[in-house]
Amino acid sequence: MITGAVTTDREAVIRIVVRGPAGQEQEVEAVIDTGFDGWFSLPPALIALLELPWRRRGRALLADGNETVFDIYDGTVLWDGSQRRVAVDEASTAPLVGMALLDGYELSLLVRASNDQKAALAIRYLFRSEPLGAGMPEVMAY
Amino acid sequence: MPITQPRYSKEEFARRGDAMYEGKIRPLVESGNEGKFVAIDIETGTYEIDSDELVASDHLLARVPDAQMWLKRIGSRYVRRFGPRPQTIAQ
Predict the structure, then answer these.
(1) What is the pLDDT of residue B91?
(2) Is the Cβ pair A63, B86 closer than 8 Å?
(3) How far is the alpha carbon of B27 from chain A, nearest alpha carbon, in Å?
């Protein structure tokens, strides 16, 4: 299980270790972004620091309705105790965890006004034998 | 192996990649492959298709190690969505 927090800015964050090809390693605070359908994004400075290899380019739709051409790099993240190879998208914002990385996992958030951030965010792997959405309220199961 | 860097501007990538996809690749691959990724080398026109973006990319790199790769998704203008989809918000 991966745990994180919901910050006082109401952002859902986790700490995640990213690795480059020569073993460079950086722990970053990443925001869980359910509007991002990729795996992971990093700003240009961190991609350079980790010396991630460039792989390809594509076109993305941005939140304001504009589009952009962006670069995709090859990287590895430590995810739930294992190394996971991911497409790292270059984006000039805080590091983002997208829905592709969450595939197969259940994300729980506890959002509240107090400063108590203990285990306010949990990402849990769903075993194949487990019914999808078990323990979730009926209204969520659409 | 030297690390490949992009040799064209982003605009040139999009122009060449889209022209290759629309002109030669789309008519051959579109049917039955909705949602799959197409990795295209914009210099040679070599391409690979897979439902997994990393697999399509790896297969193309195996054939063209120095590929100038443009990624398309069949049936979509975009390969990524950053943030919510503004057009779908009810007016």
Answers:
(1) 43
(2) yes
(3) 20
Number of structural domains, chain B? 1
Phi, psi of A140 (to 5 degrees): -80, -15
How far off is chain A from B85, nearest CA to CA, in Å? 6
B84 vs A: CB within 8 A = yes
Among A33, A2, A8, A50, which residue's Cα sits nearest to residue A99?
A33
Give the start-end residues of each E strand in A7-137: 12-19, 25-32, 40-42, 54-62, 67-79, 82-90, 96-97, 105-109, 121-125
Q: Is B90 within the bounds of a domain?
A: no
Residue B89 falls inside a structural domain: no
Which residue ranges form the domains of chain A, and what is each CATH number? 2-140 (2.40.70.10)
B72 contacts A56? CB cut-off 8 A: no
ipTM above 0.90, yes or no: yes
Q: Is the pLDDT of residue B89 over 50?
A: no
Considering the domain boundaries, does residue B88 fall inside one? no
C-alpha distance from A94 to closest chain B C-alpha (Å) = 12
* Among B3, B70, B82, the residue to mutate for chain A (most A Cβ within 10 A): B82
Distance CA A53, CA B2 (A): 10
| Residue A142 confidence (pLDDT) above 50 | no
Residue A128's pLDDT band, with cuts at 50, 70 and 90, is low
DSSP three-state, residue A139: helix
DSSP H helices, B1-91, are 10-20, 26-29, 53-63
Mark yes or no for CB contact B83/A63 under 8 Å.
yes
> Three-state SS for B33?
coil
